[in-house]
Design a protein that fits this description.
By secondary structure, the protein is α/β, with parallel strands linked by helices. The protein has helices at residues 16-24, 59-66, 92-101, 107-110, 119-132, 149-164, 180-183, 284-299, 311-318, and strands spanning 3-10, 32-39, 48-52, 137-140, 169-174, 187-190, 195-198, 211-216, 240-246, 249-258, 267-275, 303-308, 323-329, 355-360. It has a seven-stranded mixed β-sheet, covered by helices on one side. Strands 4-5-3-6-7 form a five-stranded mixed β-sheet, with helices on both faces. Helix 3 (92-101) packs across helix 5. The longest helix has 16 residues, at 149-164. The two termini are 50 Å apart.
């Protein structure tokens, strides 16, 4: 990584307004000159870096000078869906897998244009787009600058998880120091003091997330989550409803229904699981599903099963030893009970898609 000595000079034309300001404020020169000197002393054995400092301290100037070909901002989004804005040579599977990896895991939102997404979603789409460009290094300017700080921290952790699953390098350029503990960078360059810090030998621990689950009788809370569910907006009013809070902010929804079975009794089945977009990518959905299942098995002495076709959810369940895969494939006719699914409602049965079934075991 290079030493740098960057000089930027502005020579404005001496218009009437320029001359007025020079005279009014007794400026000694018509030229504006800035110099940035520093050293990023690092080899290639790193994945995540951070250039951080206050506004006007030279972050963007330094990043552009050192890494001019690596910016992943200012993508042009013109299609009716963000799926069609991704690189043309990439398959749908590659695109959706990348979306999931950065915590953009709401298929209904994949069908929207970029312009209507939240700022948090846009940040993750830009990162996914950068990953799909196959660049070895990505530099993300104004990282988390336009999102809520709680969302920024959650998003930063999701981003670093996604990057560390690849062989890519990522540099966040930001004026917000509150993301550092969540981004877990290998190095930091502070443009306020023009100092470099190598953090690779420091133990990296994510800050604690305050995670709380409550059961609620207010079934109307589903309305806040329905549009984000990847299969159906419907919800069975007979289901038990649980909500999750992250750092005292509503973040997740999970519900469960009794599962009628001709032979085995006392089984409950997961009904609807949704994590709000700003909180995706850090394992909240798996934790919510697992804690609710544990409650039924341990406290209520019931068996608990779940069915899903969502790749990100399947990945999480597969890597949790308490969830046992019991079936994988395509069902021929959906549920025959009529109590869990309605075959007249589009998307309410699993007959037309490959699904997996799981059971929670202590």
């Amino acid at each position: 990584m290079p030493n740098f000595n960057i000089v930027k000079e502005v020579k404005p034309k001496k218009t009437f307004r320029v001359s007025s300001v020079i005279g009014k404020f007794d400026l000694q020169t018509e030229h504006i000159k800035e110099q940035f000197i520093g050293d990023i002393d690092l080899d290639n054995e790193w994945q995540i870096g951070c250039i951080i400092g206050s506004s006007g301290s030279g972050k963007t100037t330094i990043a552009k000078e050192l890494f001019p070909e690596s910016y992943i901002t200012n993508f042009k989004y013109k299609s009716e869906t963000i799926l069609d804005d991704m690189p043309k040579e990439k398959s749908v599977d590659e695109i959706t897998r990348t979306f999931n990896s950065v915590g953009f895991s709401s298929p209904p939102s994949w069908l929207k244009p970029y312009s209507v997404l939240s700022n948090g979603q846009k940040m993750r789409v830009d990162l996914a787009n950068g990953l799909l460009q196959d660049k070895e290094l990505m530099v993300f300017d104004e990282f988390t600058s336009v999102v809520d700080r709680n969302v920024a921290q959650i998003g930063s952790y999701a981003v670093q998880k996604a990057i560390r699953k690849t062989k890519r390098k990522f540099i966040a350029v930001s004026c917000h120091y509150d993301i550092v503990d969540w981004l877990l960078p290998d190095w930091i360059f502070n443009t306020d003091s023009m100092t470099f810090q190598d953090l690779r030998k420091q133990k990296k621990n994510r800050p604690e997330i305050k995670f709380e689950i409550y059961q609620t009788r207010d079934k109307s809370v589903w309305r806040m989550f329905a549009k984000h569910h990847y299969l159906s907006h419907s919800h069975n009013n007979a289901a038990d409803v649980y909500v999750a809070f992250v750092n005292e902010q509503l973040a997740g929804f999970y519900s469960a229904l009794p599962f009628p079975h001709p032979i085995v009794k006392n089984i409950y089945k997961g009904h609807r699981l949704v994590v709000l977009p700003d909180y995706q990518g850090i394992g909240i959905g798996l934790k919510l599903r697992t804690e609710v299942a544990k409650h039924y098995v341990q406290k209520k002495k019931k068996r608990f099963v779940a069915t899903t076709s969502h790749p990100a959810i399947i990945y999480g369940l597969k890597n949790n030893s308490n969830w046992i895969l019991t079936r994988k494939g395509r069902l021929s006719a959906g549920s025959k009970t009529g109590k869990i699914q309605n075959r007249n409602v589009k998307g309410s049965t699993s007959a037309n898609r490959i699904t997996t079934s799981w059971e929670y075991k202590l």
